[in-house]
User: Fold this.
Amino acid sequence: MKSFLSHLECTVCGKYHDADLVQNFCDECGRVLYPVYDLEGARRAVSKIDLLGRPANMWRFFEMMPVRSPDNVVTLGEGVTPLLRADKLGRKLGCSQLFLKDEGMNPTGSFKARGLSAAVSRAVELGQRRVAMPSAGNAGGALAAYGSRAGIDCFITIPEETPQAAVTEVRLYGSRLELVAGHIGDAGRIARERAGIEGLFDLSTMKEPYRVEGKKTMGYELAADFNWTVPDVVVYPTGGGTGLLGIWKAFEEMTQLGWLEEAKMPRMICVQSEGCAPITRAYLEGKDRSEPWVDPITIASGLRVPTPFADDLILQTVRESGGTALTVGDEELYPAIKDIAELEGVFVCPEGAATLVALQKLLEMGTIDPDEKIVLLNTGTGLKYLDVLETP
Ligand SMILES: *Cc1c(COP(=O)(O)O)cnc(C)c1O
Ligand SMILES: [Zn+2]
Assistant:
């Protein structure tokens, strides 16, 4: 197996960056770098059918992954999560083709495993053995786990008001932890300071080029599970936006690879919390960039991201896809968690429940047609939120 990673390209000014050097963001304009692949080469080297015969984890898409040598892959078996038909829930809503992709099945209980498996593998491959990262919760747990497996030094900052599970995980896996008063933006500042002092590599969301590559494998898996067709709508709980961007990138790559049965892309729906919705606000105001959200508050801790670094890309993707952005209230989350649990047997996280609330609103508004093929992304397991969920 060989990676067809070619180089890194700035998503704003297009500047070329060498992928085999350590990079964070564009050295010209400071914006997000994306890995670019030789997809012609990949297409000749491997068929989509071959991939499905490989072990059931996200590294089966190795040709389109950013790690040069399979020996450098740090894995706990992440990815290849179930795409569940949600027929009973669908019947309740009047939807005929409703699906739930359950990312709660990943190592450490959230899809952050995908991003951090990719980022840690590539960091280690490029000789970075000391890293720093702020987290709203689940990313911290995932980095701590992959960091322990890779045997690297991790410094992780987490806001105090984060579900206990993430804090326990980071300590348990042996990372260095600092609890920070405030939100992930404050945690980011502390992580950057420490990174500067100790010379640690910054693994913040979208500020290094490879977490998005792990998350894009969700898009490859969706296409494979739908027999290389494209769902009409993907409903995604958006914090830093890596998952939404990754899924979109995967569909773009598969289009170039000629793997899709139809020339079509999904509509991407960005769901945020009423208590922290910088992207949705910018979307509704017709802006290309978001403003920092003051006093972000939500029990959906993964959505508590007041200044998403890739705001421009998220807004561009939502618009280009013909999707939309909306908010849901925290008080709507628990009933949705209960509905999914009772009807489908899945204990989703509050962020995952937000996608169901959003779907209900979009069906009422007529933005989504009940006969469309709809995917709700459950980004993590509800089991990591026991201390913040009120259980009547
Ligand atoms: C991080 C996180 C999100 C937000 O993901 P992004 O890709 O950063 O937008 C959503 N849900 C959960 C459970 C998370 O941990
Ligand atoms: Zn640039």
